[in-house]
Amino acid sequence: MNPHLNLEENMKLASVLEPSKPSFFPAMSKIVGTLGPQSRSVEIISNCLKAGMSVARFDFSWGDTDYHQETLDNLKIAVKSTKKLCGVMLDTVGPELQVINKKETPISLQEDSFVVLTPDLDKEATSCLLPINFTGLSTAVKKGDTIFIGQYLFTGNETTSVWLEVAEVNGEDVVCLVKNSATLSGLLYTLHVSQIHINLPTLTDKDKEVISSWGVRNSIDILSLSYTRHAEDVRHAREFLSKLGDLYQTQIFAKIENVEGLTHFDEILQEADGVILSRGNLGIDLPPEKVFLFQKTAVFKCNMAGKPAVVTRVVDSMTENLRPTRAEATDVANAILDGSDAILLGAETLRGLYPVETISTVGRICAEAEKVFNYDLYYKRAVKHAGDAMSHLESITSTAVRAAIKVKASVILCFTSTGRAARFIAKYKPITPVISVVIPRLKTNQVRWTFTGAFEARQSLIVRGIFPMLADARHQVKGSMTAESTNSTNESVLKVALDHGKAHGFIKPHDRVVVCQKLGDAYVVKILELED
To answer: Which positions fall inside the Pyruvate kinase C-terminal domain (predicted)?
Structure first.
């Protein structure tokens, strides 16, 4: 039996057909939705939030800052009307190679014909010549190398993707043999050279400009660093963010897209706040039979490090269809059984016909997979992996998870001002939801006092099992004091959190609740049994 599954041996298959019981938290796993042409109105975004989207991704590979600002303004209206928190992720362009087709007319390429890739952007794109935005391709490739060109966020179902083989290099031009017939039609085409180093910075000047303007203006929660290849890429991005006001708080998720990033994965994971496994480009760089192995190994490493693992490209066919394929539905479930924190939807929500239905479908599959996830085995393995190196905070939070398992608690309430304690609890993937009660901190820069806490609350929206609550500013703590520094604050916030749980139905009479908090200098785990 698969050790990740927790199935009873005498389980009748007919029970699979029984409808799932409704729950306040339909899924512990999170869904990142890319907002675009099919998903940027207030109405659609509101429905996406209701369907289960908890982080909105803004992809700057296309569209200008004004376009994305309008979308984000609509998101803010939707968040206010639905009363659902949503994180904001800015996805950088990075060293992305693009085919430049100024006229945007369809280009037909025939199998066994030749096409020239040129850095001369003054030339028009034709079936014999494709201008690209990179002058160094001729020095990076050699005869026999494989090049893939596909519609941006290609799904694999289109007849608009083409494989090329380098035939010869002629000055700055690269002559390629077309391996399959295809028609390039659409707004944006990207080019990927298999297992070749592209000598361009990971954080480009364009990326820096977007982050400095749009990112700062909108206090982005997460930066998705495209084409992360080395730990230094993450360090450089963090240094850049540290000088941009509130963005010193922004988390950096390394997007692993090629063999170079895979090779340096361990060092990158140490530096990053989370990892996005970009399976679209990885599927080109890796042999197909190796993709699953990379995914499972990378997710395991993220799990043991206590950092979110996000998987992309799961239900491509839903870009144009109302239901996923059987393979896709199984793929989503396996990603959750592997331990993934979130599923990232790209083309499915950006230009797909059914963005809301896609989010809803993926959420339901995640919820079903979570029901058979072997929490007990996972907990034991995570504790064993942490070993004697476990910090005091991790020791306490892992104990809270164990207590919740033993007493069959309905929820774990975690009081935090930085989010660290809640993330440590989530690392051990408890079967119960973790309500992270974020206590605002009052800080000063000698000019004015400001409350912090919203960043921490929204950033947990990509972590499996955490559901944040931002406490009222009246319960704030000043300066460097702990979030649970006084008994009066403590009891007051606890009552508010419990009342909130009762009002929304996820805490019921006679339920047991595990509470994890800091009292003075000591961390405390306590078990409450609620009365009527």
So the answer is: 394-518
